[in-house]
Amino acid sequence: MAVQQSDVLYTAVATAENGRDGRVATDDGRLDVVVSPPEEMGGSGAGTDPEQLFAAGYSACFQGALGVVARQAKADVSGSTVTAKVGIGKNEDGFGIIVEISAVIPNVDADTARALVEQAHQVCPYSKATRGNTTVTLV
C-alpha cells in the first residue's frame, strides 16, 4: 500500500548538479558532497557516488527497522551493525542495482538473528521500495 501525501511525516530534499560528476546537496545544508563516478566506471573516484549514498541510507534505515522488530520480539540488538553493499551493473533496461544486506547481531543466536533480519526486511522502507525490482540478498 502506497503512502498518501497526508501521511508523510518528513520529506528530505536534495538537488544534484552535473549528475554523477558534480555535487549533491540538501536544501537544509546538512549534506553537501562532491560526486564523481568510481574508477571502475571510468571516473576519477575523487568524490562519493550515488551507490555509496544509497548504501549509507539503506544500512541506516535497515538498522532502524531491525530495532523496531527486535523491540517487538524483546530481543537484544545492542551492539549490532548493518552493512549494505550496493552494486551497479548493466541489465536488459540499461543499468540496475543489486544489494547485499549483512547484519551482525552479537547478543542473539544465529536462528534469532536470521529471523530478525528477515522481519526487518519486511518492514524497512528501503526494502519495500526496492522489492520486486532490485535483487536484495540478506546475509
How much strand? 25-35%
Mind describing the biggest β-sheet?
3 strands, antiparallel
Shape: globular
Q: Can you list the strand order of the major beta sheet?
A: 1-2-3
Please tell me how large the radius of gyration is. 17 Å
In DSSP terms, counting alpha (H) and pi (I) runs of 4 or more, how many helices?
Answer: 3
The poorly predicted ranges are none
Helix content: 25-40%
Please give the number of β-strands: 6
H/E element sequence:
EEEHEEHHE
Family: Belongs to the OsmC/Ohr family.
Protein name: Organic hydroperoxide resistance protein
Pfam family, one: OsmC
InterPro entries: KH_dom-like_a/b (IPR015946), OHR (IPR019953), OsmC/Ohr_fam (IPR003718), OsmC/Ohrsf (IPR036102)
Task: Tell me what you see in this structure.
This protein has 139 residues and is α+β, with helices and mostly antiparallel strands. The protein has helices at 50-73, 110-123, 125-130; strands spanning 14-17, 22-26, 32-35, 81-91, 94-104, 135-138. It is built from three helices and six strands; from the N terminus they run βββαββααβ. The strands form two sheets. A three-stranded antiparallel beta sheet has the order 1-2-3, with no helix packed on it. A hairpin with a 5-residue loop joins strand 2 and strand 3. Helix 1 crosses helix 2. Belongs to the OsmC/Ohr family.
